[in-house]
């Protein structure tokens, strides 16, 4: 359960923003979307490998 302490006189929008930030950090939405459609382990490895290649390419371009 996420608890956001609201101080007296604090703006409600600021409290809502804190709540959203804490909720995002829990990763609940990301996990829900990942569980929505099953991906085979081989597919996950392939995607991770492609991402690693892309990041390495960006770093090489950044060094030049």
Structural write-up:
The chain is mainly alpha-helical. The chain has helices at 12-26, 28-36, 41-63. It has one domain (12-63). Helix content is 73%, strand content 0%. The radius of gyration is 19 Å and the shape is flat.
The number of helical runs is 3
Q: What's the count of strands? A: 0
> Beta-strand level of the residues, as a percent range?
under 5%
Q: What pattern of helices and strands is seen along the backbone?
A: HHH
Tags for this entry?
flat, about 60 residues, about 0% strand, mainly alpha
In brief, what are we looking at here?
This protein has one domain (12-63). The chain is 73% helix and 0% strand.
How are the secondary structure elements laid out?
Layout: H1 12-26, H2 28-36, H3 41-63
């Amino acid at each position: 359960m996420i608890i956001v302490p609201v101080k007296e006189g604090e703006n409600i929008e600021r409290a809502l923003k804190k709540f959203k930030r804490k909720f995002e950090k829990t990763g609940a939405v990301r996990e829900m979307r990942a569980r929505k459609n099953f991906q085979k382990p081989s597919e996950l490895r392939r995607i991770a490998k492609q991402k690693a290649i892309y990041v390495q390419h960006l770093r090489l371009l950044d060094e030049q």
